[in-house]
Design goal:
With about 300 residues, the chain is of the alpha/beta class. Helix content is about 40%, strand content about 10%. The chain contains 14 helices and seven strands. The strands form two sheets. Strands 3-4-5-6-7 form a five-stranded mixed β-sheet. Strands 1-2 form a two-stranded antiparallel ribbon. The protein is globular, with a radius of gyration of 19 Å. It starts with a helix and ends with a helix.
Length: about 300
């Protein structure tokens, strides 16, 4: 039986904390000030709060005519498609901005991502992800930036064991962290950076299917542009793994990958990065446990009653 038009374009219940105004935060469906949130949460969790963000409406209004046309066309095409749900305007904007390839706002490239995108990723929450996040396997690092100003997320692959944790769990962890990062306009517009600390890593932490799904996620399976991929302190025999990974990466993405010792991080990260780098890595000085706990606390706060 044909579905009616309303059913076909029913809004998807997204767990996306879209910016609403500079220094404002949503909690339990209400808009509160940054200072009010800080009084409730403390300084640690508020390291993850957006500052001086424009609302989605203001961001869309500031687009060039051709960029706006791309966003509008994606929305029209999607909502004419019998997908059963409609995205929010913040997601149509994200798909357009993060279209894979050299150009942003490439309608056809963005459309391909939209058609393959698993909308379940937009329903992931900190409550669901808490157990995986506090394992400190993969998490967002507050305030740390690459030399080009990209926000950074961090992974310790030696904490992931394919025989103990499903591929779905680690991929959900990855999707959740990347999507949270691109709620910020700059990260959505200019991309993000990824650092993998390979200390203590062995073959027991690897499977081809996990690796393949992970690399696909980094290359556009979700609307995020990864601009830098640092593989830090790889073991001497990592060449065997690279020979498996390399064919999974598009030629332009391979150029973003750098296999380096810890001593060369200063070539890729901002000045004074060690103070913000997790102490999970040899030269880092930032408390990793506090970082992860604060991230979970902040996300639970802003996602509550969404």
């Amino acid at each position: 039986r044909p579905r009616n038009e309303a059913t076909m374009t029913a809004p998807l219940k997204e767990n996306v904390v879209a910016p609403i105004a500079a220094d404002k935060i949503v909690h339990k469906g209400e808009v509160i000030s940054y200072e009010s949130a800080k009084k409730k949460l403390g300084d640690g969790p508020m390291r993850f709060a957006p500052i001086d963000e424009r609302s989605v409406e203001d961001q869309i209004a500031a687009l060039s005519p051709s960029e706006r046309e791309c966003v509008d066309n994606l929305k029209t095409r999607w909502e004419k498609k019998s997908s059963g749900y409609a995205f929010s305007d913040s997601m149509y904007l994200r798909f357009a901005r993060c279209s894979p390839g050299p150009e942003k706002f490439n309608e056809e490239a963005a459309w391909k991502v939209m058609k393959k995108f698993d909308s379940r990723y937009l329903t992931l929450t900190a409550v669901q992800q808490e157990k995986q996040l506090i394992s400190k396997t993969l998490f967002v690092v507050p305030e740390l930036k690459s030399k080009d100003g990209h926000d950074v997320f961090y992974m310790r692959p030696s904490r992931y064991f394919p025989k103990q944790t499903s591929t779905k769990e680690i991929i959900d962890n990855l999707a959740y962290c990347m999507q949270v990062m691109v709620e910020k306009e700059k990260a959505c517009t200019e991309g993000i950076a990824f650092m993998a600390n390979m200390a203590d890593w062995s073959f027991s932490n690897f499977s081809v299917s996990y690796c393949h799904q992970f690399m696909m996620m980094l290359q556009g399976r979700v609307p995020v542009r990864v601009r830098l991929f640092l593989i830090v302190n790889p073991p001497s025999w990592f060449g065997k793994i690279w020979s498996i990974m390399k064919p999974m990466l598009a030629a332009d993405f391979r150029k973003k990958v750098h296999m380096i010792p810890c001593s060369q991080l200063n070539d890729h990260l901002e000045d004074n990065f060690v103070d913000k780098l997790p102490d999970d890595i040899d030269i880092g000085k930032a408390d990793t446990q506090a970082m992860v706990s604060d991230f979970v606390a902040y996300r639970k706060f802003v996602e509550e009653a969404m």
